[in-house]
User: Fold these one by one.
Assistant:
Number 1:
Amino acid sequence: MATACSSLPDRPPRTYFGRRQAQTKRQAEATKRKHQVSSGAPPAKRRNEISSLSAKETIDKETPRTFKGSAHKTFPPKTYLDSTGSGRQEKPCIKTSSLFKNNPEIPALHRAVVKQAREQVFSPEAFQELDLHPHLISTINTVLKMSSMTSVQKQSIPVLLEGRDALVRSQTGSGKTLAYCIPVVQSLQALTSKIQRSDGPYALVLVPTRELALQSFDTVQKLLKPFTWIVPGVLMGGEKRKSEKARLRKGINILISTPGRLVDHIRSTKNIHFNRIQWLVVDEADRILDLGFEKDITVILNAVNAECQKRQNVLLSATLTEGVTRLADISLHNPVSISVLDKIWDQPNPKEDASTQLDSFAIPESLDQHVVLVPSKLRLVCLAAFILQKCKFEKDQKMIVFFSSCELVEFHYSIFVHTLSCRSGAPTSEQLPSASWPLKFLRLHGNMEQEERTSVFHEFSHSGTGVLLCTTLRSCKSSKEKSGYLKFSALEALHRREDHTFLKDVAARGLDLPHVTWIVQYSAPSSPAEYIHRIGRTARIGCHGSSLLILAPSEAEYVNSLASHKINVSEIKMEDILAVLTKDDCFKRRQRGAQKSHATGSQEIRERATVLQTVFEDYVHSSERTVSWAKKALQSFIRAYATYPRELKPIFHVRSLHLGHVAKSFGLRDAPRNLSVSTVKKKASLKRPDPRRKTRNKHHFVLAEVLHSEYSSGLEAGGTKGGKQGKQWGFQVAPSKPGPRRE
Ligand SMILES: Nc1ncnc2c1ncn2[C@@H]1O[C@H](COP(=O)(O)OP(=O)(O)OP(=O)(O)O)[C@@H](O)[C@H]1O
């Protein structure tokens, strides 16, 4: 796509060049740029073009001809906002095409207001009121420093102490770990024949990831302080099997494991026996299924059933999916179903209640959810403005921004650090908002070295402020062992043990980081469950938090999709976010002769957004490397976009993306044409574009080729999560012999 290079209000008269001369020059320039872009080289600075201009003026004067990039003119150099940190310079200027022209209309959001499922996090009851060993109570009070129970703990612990099976469903960050750990420890310490280490496992706890395994281990270990004869242990990928075997041989009484690693041991270790198992706990059941562990769970259930029938089974989950219900059907015996939803949620019709609950998710009451509709071209400036608004101009804000891929995280980290934060190499204070608090950016994704990841967690966790840019599970490359969760306490445990190898597969989903005030979803999640788990990183255990979902106008329908799962989001207007740019004059447009623009109101906001966009574009086009990064990030964005599950395709379909506009949100002045790959032409031709849409935009076709080329490079194709995996579901557990149960 040709960059929109508009006529300028303050440019010299058209006679500056002869018409023919100008045309020839334009063509030569365009060919040169095209060649450079397609070869991966940075485009030549358009020395003869004009720099950032008033958005309003752009809108007024831009003509279809100029939008096609055929109106480049030569102008004298002028002052511009430099992104390299060297301050304002006299330099030839690069024009930023209008951010506010040719955008799709932002639709009015007509979302149905739904009654959101709510949970009371804390109950007024103290742990003392439970029938627990006094030493266990004092350990909870003094070691864990907790006094009152959360609602899920209040409901679950007595039921489990009675010996019942349970399906526990409660919102993120509500204290589910202790809800099962306390009853397990209480019951095992009370056994009349005292447990011997060599007895092997009495309790088996399955968790989806290594980090959760470590976190649960950490909690159990603390609770066991007064009961030293009970030995906890953890098995997970990343540790040497040999040393795990040795530990199994010595004996582990409360065994916490990821499913994959336990199956490894079931198949290869003679020392693993389940004949004394009294507890089988499946924590984060939804996540276990999400990660594709259903076959492993089947193997484990079969192995345990073969050796032991008399046990208590517990399934815990933040979301109640069809898979979780099926797993509950086969693993729980006459379970008590515990769901900590408010009375407001009670429906008069029990049938409706069951089906609605299956599709609905409890969200912490202290969590405010928002959505903003932003045209593709404006996504980057809008995100930057929001970060500035919250983390620069407001105090004590800590934000996590979710992206759909590692490349996206790297790209945005780099561009923000170099243009917005106050680190070395970043713009000088003259260019940055004058106010307030320094911006600190951190990033975390699955392609980072483990040590760096660990230190990022420490830094972000201990910091009272900061912006963490991270990926979600969907974006990680490895398959089964890609971990969705990282709990900070587990990291601390790891750090203490100076063993970072465990965390090799950590992805940045499900962080348990304290005091996060904002969650921003820059890429929409692929399922309501994912949405819940992302926003669940804030407003944990009663704290207040907010979330923002950034959608394109064409994706507005997603709000209704969320509403159908009883998720309520309220709209923030893009202009209100961009308005923050008026707080600092560094975003003020300077006209020729260093005169400041006197625009006001929305015109001023648009001008300033354009200035910020120019800063980004200057940064991206400052070197071959940065252009290439931006292109990679764009490619990766499109690839991720293609992986939305089938049911969301009507909302998120790559063919509805305007490549030129999307490229703009990567600071690219031109949509990279060289993304299309000839090897996939065959596939592309299979899906002929609708002739009725022929004139709509040629970029759509290029886009299709881009996507196919990504698939042909061996990268994961889209739609598996919602489609294939969903269908795969089906447990085949060996029939368990009827036996006495603890009821
Ligand atoms: N009774 C309590 N009082 C105070 N803090 C608690 C209590 N119970 C748990 N917590 C703390 O709340 C935080 C969240 O607990 P936990 O990780 O068990 O929640 P969760 O429901 O498993 O969350 P998620 O579903 O997101 O994994 C932890 O830091 C934990 O230490």
Note: The chain has a mean pLDDT of 72.
Number 2:
Amino acid sequence: MGTKRDNIVRPINPASFHAVETGSREHIPGCLSIDFSVAVVLPAGGSGERTGLSTPKQFCTFLNRPLISYTIQAFERIAWIENIVVVVAKNSIDLMVKVVQQFGHKKVKVVLGGSTRHRSIFNGLKAFEEREEDSALKKPKVVIIHDAVRPFVEEDFLLKIAIAAKQQGASGAIRPLVSTVIATTSEGYLDHSLERAKYRASEMPQGFLYDTIYQAYVQCSEADFEFGTECLHLVLQYCGTNARLIEGPHTLWKVTYKQDLFAAESIIKETLAQTACVVTGLCEESTRLAGALQKTLGTQDMHVEIVPTKLRSSSTFISTNWNFIHVTVNSACLADLEELVKTFEETAHSVLYSVVLILVHLDVSEQPSASETMAALGGIRNLAAEAKRRNILLYGILLNHVKDAEQWEEAVENLSQIIASLIKERNPVLTGQLLWA
Ligand SMILES: Nc1ccn([C@@H]2O[C@H](COP(=O)(O)OP(=O)(O)OP(=O)(O)O)[C@@H](O)[C@H]2O)c(=O)n1
Ligand SMILES: O=C(CO)[C@H](O)[C@H](O)COP(=O)(O)O
């Protein structure tokens, strides 16, 4: 039976992760399309020994979501990708099924992995061989293979890989080497070194005509399955197909060590912090403060739009933002915040990414009373606790109006720095706190 979540439109993704690299906020047009079928295999059956963690890296969580879900979403948002086969180890099957349900992934089939990466990939490919009536999967023309631990792959690059695979039989992402490759003697001395400019690192994604890569796996040896690391090599050796190589962005790197998990989290946080929305009332003080925040946050590389309170439930501005600043003047209006929280819940806006909601309470009275304000806004704690269960991070900031222009400018600057920090850090521990700007 369909749940409420099945019927709602999923929020769009935050700005492309490329934007972090290039500084550009350009969106890739949503109408990219191709006229052949494409499916994806995500090998996720490894144990992540090199991280030194007990949890396999694909199930390590940041911002309340496991790494594997970010990678799945990178493919699932693309209209021309039909199915995603996720290959996991036996003891992770239940966890994977739970992840699929919790984050509402719709195109995923979970398949049992093997003892090496190549065995896992072959198991993923074999899932398309099941008789059609027994399976929801249709054999695709092109299959894209991508490590589950490379979460930042973009549509424009996948399109290049898919088209090149269709034309050439195989294609793969490459990057310039960052270190020189050397051969060592068995005694640990330098044997020889390779000319760095001549070589490239082979990365993922890789694309293949499905029949070609399947045949390569059917023919390959036990040694290939046990020790091989390169699918492109298999199609060359067993099918005579020379892959087309395409240089990709550095964000395709593979999460391998513990520090890579921190890097991935930072990239997601930075991307989420690119835009914010100030919800403001109609009074002069409120609109003036909203305008000032738009300017000061703009200098910190945040694109801020201002939306009047009466439009706050409009889905158009909600679906493109993960950060909201609600400005109130004098009257403390937790009811408005409650309504926003409800809207986020109804639109499932915080299922994939945490939403930051900041109440900025401006006191313009002659003699502001801290105790009265505290009493009026005291309920923010309970509301924040309730919101946190829905992945909404609610904070409050108090600001007293000052007449002196210079002091006022300083206070607004201070306020915008606190706001920017709350948005960038997305710290769940500080939710429900009232801060003083
Ligand atoms: N038996 C295996 C081994 C690896 N993989 C997957 O292949 C990808 C790339 O492999 P790697 O980075 O080496 O992952 P691990 O094998 O998990 O890491 P480590 O080598 O540090 O143990 C990962 O998504 C990993 O889950 C897999 O599906 N099945
Ligand atoms: O980059 C690759 C593409 O050819 C590797 O084969 C792939 O990512 C496997 O990683 P590892 O060798 O660490 O298991």
Note: The chain has two domains: 14-268, 273-436.
